[in-house]
Write a structure and sequence with these properties.
10 strands; 244 residues; ATP-binding; Amino acid ABC transporter ATP-binding protein; six-stranded mixed sheet; 9 helices; transport; cell membrane; alpha/beta; AAA+_ATPase; Rossmann fold
Length: 244
């Protein structure tokens, strides 16, 4: 079976600073892959390149059988195939939670409002936010806003969900409720690529962990192997920070 997503020798620089140095990464359908690494290692940049929010300088990116790094590609149509959630919630403050969740379904995917709202209400019910459907985001806690942002990302049934440090802006007591939603999505077979500093969560939920350092993939493998018996000295050095 061919990979759903393939990045081949991806290079990205900002000015004279090379952030990604020939990254090769693949992701199969229904696979959950955790990207780990220090701040500045290139995790967020890689996700933004995969989602065509940043143009790459070299290499190729394939989504299914489509070369989405081809400069002639319609980037908006490609992004419609992804769900993406970043560190800040990015909910529109002037829209209700329901309108935030249904916006892409209605505007991008042309889903009838009634159908979009029915699906959104079902999703909000599942994660305990049904009572806030008609509320504006400022009535929600940070954890509730981030869960609503994740629901917005999955409401369109994306082929792939990109999560970029979705708990980093949250107070510690709110982290668990967001991670529990991601855990549920993973258990349901959602294909997920997530950049995270939550090592215990990556160990428990991911099928594969990828360690990125200075724009290069140093090591990747099943969580038990990478966390339990890392092969590379740089990986051991990085993980020692979390076990000291």
């Amino acid at each position: 079976m061919s990979a759903l997503l393939r990045a081949e020798a991806v290079v990205k620089s900002f000015g004279d600073r090379e952030v990604l140095r020939g990254v090769d990464l693949s992701l199969d359908r229904h696979e959950v892959v955790a990207l780990i690494g220090a701040s500045g290692s290139g995790k967020s940049t890689l996700l933004r390149c995969l989602n065509l929010l940043e143009p790459i300088d070299d290499g190729q990116i394939w989504l299914d059988d489509d070369d989405i790094s081809d400069p002639r590609v319609d980037a908006n149509r490609v992004r419609a195939r992804f769900g993406a959630v970043f560190q800040s919630y990015n909910l529109f403050p002037h829209l209700t939670v329901l309108d935030n969740v249904t916006l892409a379904s209605r505007v991008v995917h042309r889903m009838p409002r009634r159908e979009a709202e029915e699906r959104a209400r079902d999703l909000l019910q599942r994660i305990g936010l049904a009572e806030f459907a008609k509320a504006h985001p400022d009535r929600l806690s940070g954890g509730q806003q981030q869960r609503a942002a994740i629901v917005r990302a999955i409401a369109t049934d994306p082929e792939l969900l990109l999560l970029d440090e979705v708990t980093s802006a949250l107070d510690p007591e709110l982290v668990g409720e967001v991670l529990e939603l991601v855990r549920q999505l993973a258990a349901e077979g959602t294909t997920i690529l997530m950049a995270t500093h939550e090592m215990a969560f990556a160990r428990d939920v991911a099928d594969r962990v990828v360690f990125l350092d200075a724009g290069t993939i140093v090591e990747e493998g099943p969580p038990a192997q990478l966390f339990g018996a890392p092969r590379e000295a740089r990986t051991r050095e990085f993980l020692a920070r979390f076990t000291a």
